[in-house]
Design goal:
single chain, alpha+beta, Aspartate Aminotransferase, domain 1, 5-stranded antiparallel β-sheet, two-stranded antiparallel sheet, 7 strands, globular, YdhG-like domain-containing protein
Length: about 150
């Protein structure tokens, strides 16, 4: 499908996206096509997450390995899966929390975030939905653990 710009030029819907955004879109389409359910699917999803983590730059890999361990211990009911090619953790197929590699996104920090499926709503109508990560102190690990437990409560 193409569209016409004001100057009469045609463009594809993928134009205007960065190389990383196009790769994420393609990865998400592949994830959706994989579909399936059951323990084989869960094992394959976790293997895909671990493979994605292993493929990260060393500094992001260290963060991702710790986040993976924290999330899976704090909320074992969450299933690891890839989401836009990055590690995510889902309940009933809906992503609750996710990690974005800063180096892959060409950012100065990685991000740990929560989707609308997370139970984080606060009184006052405002709450954070993602956090920048450059390193994980004990306090940061405790915060992630607490937030993940709240997100699935």
């Amino acid at each position: 499908m193409s569209s016409t710009s004001k100057a009469g030029e045609t463009s594809t819907p993928m134009e205007g996206f960065s190389e990383q955004e196009r790769a994420a879109i393609k990865a998400r389409a592949k994830e959706l096509k994989a579909g399936g359910r059951g323990s084989k699917k869960a094992a394959a999803d976790e293997a895909a997450v671990l493979s994605a983590i292993a493929g990260m730059a060393p500094s992001d890999r260290v963060l991702a390995e710790r986040v993976h361990a924290i999330v899976t211990a704090a909320a074992p009911e969450l299933a690891p899966k890839l989401w836009y090619g990055q590690p995510a953790y889902a309940r009933a197929g809906k992503v609750v929390c996710f990690l974005r590699s800063g180096q892959l996104d060409k950012e100065r920090y990685s991000s740990f975030g929560f989707s609308v499926a997370a139970n984080l709503d606060e009184d006052g109508g405002m709450w954070p939905t993602s956090y920048a990560l450059t390193e994980l102190s004990e306090a940061a690990e405790a915060t992630i653990r607490k937030l993940v437990q709240k997100a699935v409560s």
